[in-house]
């Protein structure tokens, strides 16, 4: 497969698969599975960032300091975007946007903000997937797997928010599906733009790592602290380790397959 074909397939799969799984979980009342998915997603994101993306970013960059500065700037930038509700995540039912006492107007606004933020998020994910595939196929596959692992629990949360905001099940599904195509748009745009700017690829890979680290540490891990009991902590730790291990295994298999 060509690099463009890989980017197109990964972007479509990442968006459509996550939305389909989210709808399945939400419509079959399996929201209790979301914490399990979140714990696994944390491991997948951190594993992809530290075991795959960062080593490639440092190896391909002309300056180690520029990559480190990009990671720092990326984490700060994602914090600002989240504050502006352009990068809005919700993974559990008891977050602020699920306030049962909010009026109908506020609920509808929350649903619309979720769609806007999710579209932007998917667009950026497409750019990051394209940058990884432009580095090499193995890195692209691992990056796409990590993004899918994170997208599924996020989309479950988004789907529940839309239902709570008054959207019908079909409309919520169709709007989420439409939003997922922003990943394909981002991937295609990045492919054609970065073809002429190969020296920028390590910078975008560093940004991908920064986004994964920020989402895992600032957005997902705090939710796990709501269950401090020993049994929950052990299960969360095992699932995080499984997430890291799956990324390591995916990288190992794709390296051998690619070689």
Task: Kindly describe this structure.
The protein has eight helices and no strands. It is an all-alpha fold and 259 residues long. The protein has one domain (3-254). The two termini are 15 Å apart.
Short summary:
This protein has 259 residues and is mostly helical.
Q: How do the strands and helices of this protein lay out in sequence?
A:
Blueprint: H1 3-27, H2 34-60, H3 64-83, H4 104-135, H5 137-164, H6 169-194, H7 201-224, H8 230-258
Helix pairs in contact: 1-4, 1-5, 1-6, 2-5, 2-7, 2-8, 3-7, 4-5, 4-6, 4-7, 5-6, 5-8
Query: Structural class, from helix and strand content?
Result: mainly alpha
Low-pLDDT stretches are 87-94, 96-109
Distance between the termini: 15 Å
Shape: globular
Given the structure, what is the number of helices?
Answer: 8
Query: How much is the average pLDDT?
Result: 78
Order of helices and strands: HHHHHHHH
| Rg from alpha-carbon coordinates | 18 Å
Number of domains: 1
Number of strands: 0
Main beta-sheet strand count, sense and barrel state: none
Helix content: over 70%
Strand content: under 5%
């Amino acid at each position: 497969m060509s690099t463009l074909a890989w980017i197109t397939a990964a972007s479509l799969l990442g968006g459509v698969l996550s939305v389909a799984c989210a709808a399945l979980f939400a419509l079959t009342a399996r929201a209790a599975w979301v914490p399990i998915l979140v714990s696994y997603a944390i491991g997948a994101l951190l594993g992809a960032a530290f075991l795959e993306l960062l080593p490639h970013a440092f190896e391909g960059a002309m300056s180690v300091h520029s990559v480190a500065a990009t990671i720092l700037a990326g984490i700060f930038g994602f914090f600002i975007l989240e504050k502006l509700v352009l990068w809005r995540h919700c993974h559990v039912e008891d977050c602020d946007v699920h306030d049962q006492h909010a009026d109908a107007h506020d609920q509808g606004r929350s649903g619309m903000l979720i769609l806007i933020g999710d579209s932007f998020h998917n667009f950026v994910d497409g750019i990051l997937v394209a940058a990884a595939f432009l580095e090499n196929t193995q890195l692209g596959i691992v990056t796409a797997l990590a993004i899918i692992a994170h997208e599924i629990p996020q989309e479950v949360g988004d789907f529940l928010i839309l239902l709570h905001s008054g959207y019908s099940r079909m409309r919520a599904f169709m709007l989420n599906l439409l939003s997922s195509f922003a990943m394909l748009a981002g991937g295609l745009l990045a492919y054609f733009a970065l073809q002429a700017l190969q020296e920028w690829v390590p910078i975008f890979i560093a940004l991908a790592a920064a986004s994964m680290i920020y989402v895992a540490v600032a957005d997902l891990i705090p939710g796990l602290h709501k269950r401090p009991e020993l049994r929950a902590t052990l299960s969360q730790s095992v699932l995080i380790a499984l997430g890291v291990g799956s990324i390591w295994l995916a990288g190992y298999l794709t390296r051998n397959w690619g070689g």
